[in-house]
Amino acid sequence: DGVTASSASYRITLESVGEGLVGTGLSSASYRMDGSFAGAYPPPGEVRGLRFASRTELRWDPERSVGTYDVYRDAVSSLPGGQYGVCWQSGLADEKATDVEAPPPGTGRFYLVTARNRLQEEGPKGDRSDGSERGGSACP
């Protein structure tokens, strides 16, 4: 008598007590049953539009699946080694970070921002010059 929704990875059966159960779609104004419970949290994409809005405020375009952002920072001199920076700030809720510390004279810094969805999956750090994805350790 119940309604069963199932796939290779889950099975849900709805039963009623006393009255018949109407077999309609599993949805309401606040949820919709899909083929996966993680469907509401797509993998994060690459963060784009990184720019300085002022001398100290770094901004970027919002990423659609974000929960929080991580910012990596390092010296420009580390770029030839294929580095993407060390974790500088993590768990940022907004599309901005502030850096009031000037780099040493004669040097420069680069910044890389990644997005984390609510499942704590970190988005890509971009690609190396050979086309392979950058790896390395993530922000804690």
Describe the structure.
A hairpin with a 4-residue loop joins strand 3 (51-52) and strand 4. Helices cover 0% and strands 28% of the residues. The protein folds into two domains: 1-40, no CATH class; 51-116, Immunoglobulin-like, CATH 2.60.40.10. By secondary structure, the protein is mostly beta strands. The mean pLDDT is 81. It has a three-stranded antiparallel beta sheet with strand order 3-4-7, with no helix packed on it. The protein has a three-stranded antiparallel beta sheet with strand order 6-5-8, with no helix packed on it. It has strands at residues 3-6, 11-14, 51-52, 57-59, 68-75, 86-92, 96-98, 109-116.
What features would you highlight for this structure?
140 residues; mainly beta; Immunoglobulin-like; three-stranded antiparallel β-sheet
Give the C-alpha Rg.
Answer: 22 Å
Helix content: under 10%
Strand order of the largest sheet: 3-4-7
User: Helix count, per DSSP?
Assistant: 0
* CATH structural class of the largest domain: Mainly Beta
Summed over residues and divided by their number, the pLDDT gives a mean of 81
Write a concise synopsis of the structure shown.
The chain has 140 residues and is mainly beta.
Topology:
Blueprint (H helix, E strand, L loop, with lengths): L2 E4 L4 E4 L36 E2 L4 E3 L8 E8 L10 E7 L3 E3 L10 E8 L24
Antiparallel strand pairs: 1-2, 3-4, 4-7, 5-6, 5-8
